[in-house]
Amino acid sequence: MNSLTIGPGVGQDFGKGLVRRVSTASTGGAWCACVVTLGPDEGVPPHVHARDDEMHYVLEGEIEFQCGERVLAAGAGAMAVLPRGIPNAFRNRSAILARFLNLFFPGGFADVVADLDRLSLADATDEAKRDEIRAKYGVRFICSQRP
Checking CA distances to 9, which of 17, 68, 112, 142 falls within 20 to 30 Å? Predict the structure, then answer.
């Protein structure tokens, strides 16, 4: 892997508050990084990553992370490490915007989002097709509410 410098505003904006800042390809598959912005009470429901360990560094606001049975409240400057194979979820429980840096080891998760982003408008609402893409990368939602 070569050294990287990522300037302000550089990255792939997938909308819905998710910007890929470092691609899996640029790290030789070792890791990838996204910045996530969540409005009040926004988040991602319980899911499992079979291949990725996640690290979240809270930049602004307060995020509630769930990892297995544990619920962790994390404000600006806090980190949450969520191991693969354990159901996890996160939500902005504050009344203001929250932002965090989301790292995945090894890389690959941002590719899930990129593949989902390439779906046609008709296919984007087909949960079976979305689940097929998630499964390709070892991601599985464990409840009926999915992004």
Answer: 112
Please, what sign has the CA dihedral across residues 8, 11, 14, 20?
Answer: negative
Residue with tokens 């599985």: 140
Q: Whole-angstrom Cα distance, residue 73 to residue 30?
A: 28
Query: Each residue of 46-67: b (16+ CB within 10 Å) or e?
Result: ebebeebbbbbbbeebbbbbbb
| Residue 63 bridge partners (DSSP) | 74, 92
Q: What is the pLDDT of residues 46-94, one digit of tens each?
A: 999 999 999 999 999 999 999 999 999 999 999 999 999 999 999 999 9
Structure-token pair, residue 23: 């691609």
- Regarding pTM above 0.90, the answer is no
Position 1 confidence tier, pLDDT thresholds 50, 70, 90: low
